[in-house]
Amino acid sequence: xxxxxxxxxxxxxxxxxxxxxxxxxxxxxxxxxxxxxxxxxxxxxxxxxxxxxxxxxxxxxxxxxxxxxxxxxxxxxxxxxxxxxxxxxxxxxxxxxxx
Length: 99
Description:
This protein has one domain (about 5-95): Conserved Hypothetical Protein Mth637, Chain: A (2-Layer Sandwich). Helices cover about 25% and strands about 35% of the residues. It has two helices and five strands. It has a five-stranded mixed sheet. The mean pLDDT is about 90.
């Protein structure tokens, strides 16, 4: 997929407050932090993180897929779509910048 973006994510399952934003330097490089209410059981936290990422980037959940890290807090998601716009939104969420 030529027009896609790979996003490193650090998931915090079982959080009291669901939230997307912040940076974690993990095994896949700088990662976006996603806190979800769902527990880390039967892929529920991964699914909640996938949906939260889609909502934060303003895309449909169907265009976000898990590439690596099904059983880990450190995950890689692939987002199909307009890479420049998605990249800008990712930087803003992860680093608090627009570029």
